[in-house]
TrEMBL record, chains A, B:
The lineage of its organism: Bacteria, Bacillati, Actinomycetota, Actinomycetes, Micrococcales. It comes from Terrabacter aerolatus. This is hydroxyacid-oxoacid transhydrogenase. It is an enzyme of class 1 (oxidoreductase). Residues 239-426 form the Fe-containing alcohol dehydrogenase-like C-terminal domain. Belongs to the iron-containing alcohol dehydrogenase family. Hydroxyacid-oxoacid transhydrogenase subfamily.
């Protein structure tokens, strides 16, 4: 595949929050808030995370630095316009605040971004939601500092500039996107993930892995036509900086992923997984993800009866990382021809012992490495194992095609027939 | 060398500005300033850089986005308290500004930091200068956004939290240090370095190389006693993130350094050097530098009659990168025993063709790689070649010992006798 832009892009961008990493880091948030100028802060979490005790422990630590803290378990897992409106209303009635802290996964962090935005800049949620759903208004004031303390090793929410939400009345997933939404500081403390069940570690880890691998194989930034400054997007295609983070993350996953799933008390493996997740957040996410992530939206959204281990049993669900992983082997078989050497290099990084098996077609090497890993860590054996069959393919393709923002970084032009083939071949991944 | 902390540090930190990199990036600064909320900005540069035409070109580009721009060539090369006071006074009389842009080397960028600080937070320069020289006051307000556009490939000023200055009446080099001094955005456009003379490329490149190599060999963060949050410093010892940037930077230097010095119009080499310098700024500088940088202060400060090619002839000088390089081979021979494998790995990264020569003592390998490179790019052959002799060693040792902030990240405990030996053996580096 050769892209031939008439006027090739020469510029790439890189954005990330400041970082404090390591066991104990979550005990120091108060110090960091003081340095950021905060004296009265709102800590946003969700009910499930609140029950672990960590949000209250972080809040106590902050109070030890003389800062007033209010704790709201106002984040809804998968935020909606209704949940965000409620969180904002609750925050307004307890405000004002000059700083925000999020303790939780992507849902808590994204809720805190929306609360910070609306309390700092005023107005209503839909003023800021991306067009055409909302008015796409850019904030005119600087937001108060936000410190993100992730409790799951997979989210990149601590470093992105986006708040993802479902607009219930329209049944559409959209977002608010602005550079000012990026948290000021990410505090990654591996202790907060120690109670994560094996199933969650496996799914979240596949999300990290696919962030790295999709960024590593993404369309190069220099293969696009030159953008006007206002056209630049946070995901600019692979570039020398995203490549560096992707490579290092794949090496960490090769070392630690199976061990962290097998034994959640393996501190070294937990630390390496937290570092790999941080690298996802800080680094390679600037390139962009493509086909597996695009497919993940309808795979998660159209679930009927699947209940994965390690997650709440009340609603059927395909966790995000699992939904991403299920079509990854076939997606990377399809992208192989865009850059064979890069796909083989990824296989070697992810599986140094077996990643250069040449007993088969080279395009089978990376899918083989992925399928071996997924089987070992207990991922379902393809889309059939989470309840889909060939009659669902057309619907899933429709859903994937709605993710044009993601498909734009695919290393091959991708149409409905390509997606249909990838999805159909993903029903069963191994014998 | 084994460090045995009773309560080992478990936390490391990482900070960096946002980045826009590539030819053409400097034409878009106005767009970035709008996104940061600025409408009337001060562009700070120095007279030498102003003469290249780039500051006016950047200012014109910013005006194209409807932003008012005032240009001050108020930066003094090596800022002093007097030069910063003058720059602040001039800025106050032309203000107010809601954003700042620096176009130049470390001097222009550091001057812009001081101007931003004093215009945003009020007071006098000495209120903020580090104790004991100044009052060490922390800013209570957030600074206006600062966009740094470096014009030399060696400075890390675009990403540090420090403004370095000479206090003339006390004849002391000190600084202002606070996390809020870090620029919001670094815009690295390799076109702005295209006119850099070969001698400047060589010295600045040695500064990059030593940033990478000193960070790579620095004392590990986990070898220190656990710090209280208020004791944390921006340079926390080597860690997984600084290692990654250091490795990648050394690989880029191996590929591009000699070519960029030999032919300044080699665009690929210029681009790789700009990227290596950016990696210095974004990444490995978070670990810290040690003996070569500590020695560089007195080597530059006590110069008598040396006039390097490519620099202004009006005053004698040893450029910073050259001053750093002159004791690097002997410093790394002395640090070898702290981690032999790491020193040998650095030699291989910096010189893949010859970095694993084993015809001599392993501790000679890295010094040999450095001396070969320095000879090839026209560095002086040791301290004698810039005017020092054995009678100067005691004075130079005194000067190095004043840099305890830097020596704290040395991988071996370093005393006067160690420095004396390193300096004495650095008089002549090759035959």
């Amino acid at each position: 595949m050769t892209w031939s832009p008439a006027n090739p892009e020469s510029v790439f961008t890189y954005g990330a929050p400041q970082l404090k990493f390591g066991p104990g880091a979550a005990d120091e948030v108060g110090h960091d808030l003081l340095a950021l100028g905060a004296r009265r802060v709102l800590l946003v979490t969700d009910a499930g995370v609140l029950a672990t005790g960590w949000p209250d422990r972080v809040a106590e630590g902050i109070r030890g630095f003389g800062i007033e803290v209010v704790v709201h378990d106002s984040a809804h897992v998968e935020p909606t316009d209704a949940s965000l409106d409620a969180a904002v209303e609750r925050a307004r009635s307890d405000g004002p605040f000059d700083g925000f802290v999020a303790v939780g996964g992507g849902s808590a962090i994204d809720t805190a971004k929306a609360v910070d935005l609306l309390l700092s800049d005023g107005g209503d949620l839909m003023d800021y939601v991306n067009v055409p759903v909302g008015a796409g208004r850019a904030p005119t004031r600087r937001l108060a500092p936000l410190v993100a303390v992730p409790t799951t090793t997979g989210t990149g929410a601590e470093s992105t500039t986006i708040c993802v939400l479902d607009v219930l009345s329209l049944k559409v997933k959209t977002g608010i996107s602005h550079v000012r939404l990026r948290p000021s500081l990410a505090v990654v403390d591996p202790r907060l993930t120690a109670s994560q069940p094996a199933g969650v570690t496996a799914s979240a880890g596949m999300d990290i892995l696919c962030h790295a691998l999709e960024s590593w194989t993404a369309r190069p930034y220099s293969s696009y036509e030159r953008k006007q400054p206002g056209e630049r997007v946070p995901y600019c295609g692979r570039n020398p900086i995203s490549d560096m983070w992707s490579e290092r993350s794949m090496s960490l996953l090769a070392k630690a992923f199976r061990a962290a799933v097998r034994d959640g008390s393996d501190e070294a493996a937990r630390g390496d997984m937290a570092l790999a997740a941080t690298f996802a957040g800080l680094g390679f996410g600037n390139a962009g993800v493509h086909v597996p992530h695009a497919n993940a939206y309808p795979i998660a959204g159209r679930v009927r009866g699947f209940h994965p281990d390690g997650y709440p049993r009340d609603e059927p669900m395909v966790p995000h990382g699992m939904a991403v992983a299920l079509t990854a082997p076939e997606a990377f078989r399809w992208t192989f021809e865009s850059d064979p050497e890069r796909h083989l290099a990824a296989a070697r990084l992810l599986d140094p012992a077996h990643g250069d098996r040449w007993d088969s077609d080279p395009r089978d090497v990376l899918p083989g490495v992925l399928a071996d890993l997924m089987r070992d860590i207990g991922m379902p054996n393809g889309l059939a194992a989470v309840g889909y069959d060939e009659h669902d393919v057309a619907d899933l393709v429709d859903g994937s095609l709605k993710q044009q923002r993601l498909l734009a970084t695919s290393p091959r032009e991708v149409g409905p027939d390509d997606l249909s083939g990838i999805l159909a071949r993903s029903m069963h991944l191994w014998d």
